[in-house]
Structure formats: C-alpha cells, structure tokens
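Q: A reviewer asked whether we had any structural model of the full assembly, not just the individual parts. We don't, so I'm hoping you can provide one. Inputs are below.
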Amino acid sequence: MHAKSLRPYLYILPAFVFLFFFTYYPAGFAFYRSFFHWNTSFIQPEFAGLYNYRQLLQSRRFWQVVTNTVVYSFSFIAASVLLALFLATQIDRVKRGGSLYKAAFFYPTMIPMAAAAMIWMFMYLPDYGLINYYLRRLGFSSVGWLNDRSIALFSVTMVGIWKYTGYYMILFLAGLRNVPDELIDAAHIEGANGRQRLLKISLPLISSHLFFILIIAIINALEAVDQIYIMTQGGPSNSTNLIVYFIYQNGFRFWDMGLASALTALLVVSLLLIVSTLFLTLGRKVYYEV
Amino acid sequence: MKFERYVWLSYVLLTLLAVLMVVPLVFMFTTSVKTLGDILSLQFRWVPREFTVENFTRVLQIMPFARYLYNTASIVAMTFLVQSITISLAAYAFARLRFKGRDLLFFLFLVQLMIPATSIIIPNYQTIRTLGILNRRLAVGIVYFASAYGTFLMRQAFRAVPRDLEDTAKIDGCNGPRVIRHVLLPLTKPSLIAFAFVSGTFHWNNFFWPLLVTDTVRARTLTVGLAMLTQATESTPEITITMAAAVMITAPLFMLFIVFQKPFIESFAGAGALKG
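A: Here is a predicted structure for the entire assembly that you could use as a starting point for your response.
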C-alpha cells in the first residue's frame, strides 16, 4: 500500500531531479552567492552582505544596462507582437499564397541567432554593407548602424524583431483559426467594418493567445544575448549592453562571480515578478475557450 | 464565405513585407558564392559577378566542420531522447494519477518557463564545473533534460487518449511504464514529433550556453564554430567565408524545414496549447 502511494512521485522524479539541479537550485544559489565576495582572487567566497548590490546601484554602467534592457524590451515587444498580429490578420484574409507567406515570415525561426547576427552585421557594415549601399544610391549619407552609439541599440533591436515576428505570427494564426467564420460573417452582415470585426470579435476571442505571446515575447526580450555577443559586444560605449550580456561580462570577463550572481538574482526576480503580475492582472481577464 | 473588400491591398502589403523579410536570406546565399573582390568593389550585386565555391572549401579548411556537425547532431539527439523519457513519465503522472501536491508540483514545473536557462548561466556554469563535465557534450545538453513545455504538451496529449485502452493493457499485465511505451506514446506520436521539431530546432540553433561550457573542438557546436571563425580570421572579417559557413550550419535544418514545412510550422503553433 505504501509503495503504491509513492508511485506517482517516482514518475515525476527524473524530470524533477533535472529541474531541481538546473533551474530551482541555480536560481537560489545565485541569490545566496550574491551576498559574497567571489572572484578568482578569493579562493573561498567571503561573506559581503549587501556589498554587491550596493556596487551595482552606485554604478552608472548598471543603470545604463537597465535602461538599455528596458528600451530594448519595450520596442522589441511592441514592434514584433503588433507586426505579428497584423501579418496574421492579413494572411487570414487572403485566399491564395498563405503557405508561401507563412514560410517567408516564419523562416527566421529556423536560422540560428548567431548566424542571423552575422548576416545583419554584414548588412550593417558602413562601407560594404547592403543597407548603406542603398541609402547612398538614394542620395543619403552612410549611417554607422553599429558604430553610432545613438543608433546601435535600434539596429540590434531590428534583428530581434526580424527573428521572432514570424513565430509570434504563427501563434496568432493558431488563435485566429479558432474564430468561427460564421461569427465574422454575422458581424459583417450587421454592418461591422473591418476594424470593428478585429477589435470587437477576433481580438477578444484570441485574447488568451495574445496574452501568451506577450509572455513569450517578454522572456525572449530579457534573455537576448547572442546578437549582442556577435554584433557589438555591448558597445559602442555600452550602448547595446543588455542584462544577460552584462551578467556574462561580469562573470566571465571580469571574473566577478559575486556581482554576476547579484545580477542573476535581480534578473530572476524580475522575470518571476513580471510574469506573475501579468498572470494575476491581465491573465484573469482573458478569454479561454473550453 | 469571406466577402472582403480591398483583399488586393493585403496581397500587396504581405508581398512587400515578405520580400523585405527574405532579404537577409538572399544576402547570405549570394554573399557565400561571391569573390572578395566583388564585395570590395563597393558595387552591391544581387547576382555575383562571378560564382565561386571556394568560400565553402575554405570553411572546410579552417573549421573542423564534420566534428562540429557530429557534436551538434549528437547533442540534439541526446537531449531529445532524455527529454522524451522525462517528459512522458511526468506527463503520465500529471495526466492520469492522483496524488497529494499534484497541482503544486505542476506549478513548479511551469516555473521553468519563466526562468530560461540563459538567465542562470553563472550558477549553472558552477554546477557543470563541479560535476567535472566542462567541455563535454553532456554539459551542453544536461541543463535541458527536463522540459516543462514538453511535459505540458504530452500531458495534454495523454489526456485525450481514452482510458479504456490503458485498462485493457493493464488487465493484460502491463505496468505503468509499459502502458506509456506501448499504448500512450504510439497514440500520441504527433505530439512527440511536434516536440521533437521544437526541441531539435532550439538545440541546433542554441549558442550562448554551448559557447560558455565548451572550449575545444571536442564539444563545440556548429553555432559556436561559426563565432570562432570570425575570431580566427584576425584581419577584417571575411564576409564571403563567414556567409559560406553560415549557409553550411543553417542548411541541414533549413532543408528539413523546406521539406516538412507544414508539420514544422504546426509544431511551433502547438506552443499556443500552453495558454490556459
């Protein structure tokens, strides 16, 4: 009898072991280590209280990274989610070529971000780049897409939008497929125009998809790092340094694991706070089909 | 019945945007078969002045491509194999068994979705080092051996299977794991294949974690090899060679995508099942 009541837990155990050692434990461990001096010169980590956090709060670099990450996240999320919704509604309308359009927008999901970043880096090159070539032909002067500190973050954001929009579009299309045609037709007969049909019928019906896509986009925004590593290394003058790259810099370039742990703890807490807040507020309002 | 006006406008907008989206892909292909002289002429041509495959042979000289390909393929396969075991066992418990703390445990699983592996590279690196598996392929995969997404997907799939089928199997003397293997999994193959597509794509393309835990040819993946390539060529990054390498590391997955376009896209759309 006793063995039987343990049985369900045995099924969960293998997955749980990996979850524990590579998700929960590291999150907790980063939090714990954030209270220590911990770098290569300290053989044994030494308790430091809030030292690492004080270091961060006083550092201009840290605040610049926070600002960059917030700006990147908002512009990336707004642009990719709205564009994805737009594309999905348009593809939903057309009768022919749907799968061709889908492939054209979705294929970046198949391209590794590392390769995508290389491609874009070369398209952004000041002299030999494709984009400046056309700008010059149109009579504009060349732009330092990745060299100009006031533009670099924008250039990096474009890569993220290009890479993820198609994926979000596919998720929106899955939602739109569940909206019954009769409902749309009925609204049409009642005289609702295209915008009303989208805002009053389709959108509320796919609100659970919209909510879910928003959550994925937030996570995708905050974990962005591949393109930074390849394209800019956080520069010029820190203008494209995002939170995960900053963690990497402190941990693996400056070997200050204590500071990197404090940053990790802040990132994990932010992720949990943002997602759970959304679940408790917006999440309760969205429509779930049964 | 869709009696829309201005559908032509949708076609125009979609075509325009689709062309823009495809530009980077065409740029990659065309640059990969150009000569460096063509690039340096400052005249951008969509069709190369002269075609060359030399960039590809150069990549094969500079980069141990076959080894990276082998590493990547085995990491993808290993990760999926272990995942398919952990997720189907857990999914079975969550779908079919009743036990104390089930909802809490399920919630704990979902927390993994909010803490992507990329956000906890520092502590995970320490764990990998402590385990003594730095620079091994296992280090790249092990972090992903449990998948909340996969567990959720398979739980949904198992729930849709009628219980009678399992009961018959149990009367015939099948225990839980055998029921999963011989009854549930064959019936939920589409879901497992969908997960294989999503997991495989993620791990084929994964970059930052493999970059951190590998530092020799022994365990490096294709994406890491690509990044090393530009660091190896100290001079101005050789655009043509790098793009040839990008074509080579992208090609296997991309061809798979072209052949299985529909199931591929459907698999990713399946992530929508996570809502609710």
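A: Points you may want to mention in the reply: Chain B touches chain A through 100 residues (CB under 8 Å). The first helix of chain B runs from residue 7 to 32.
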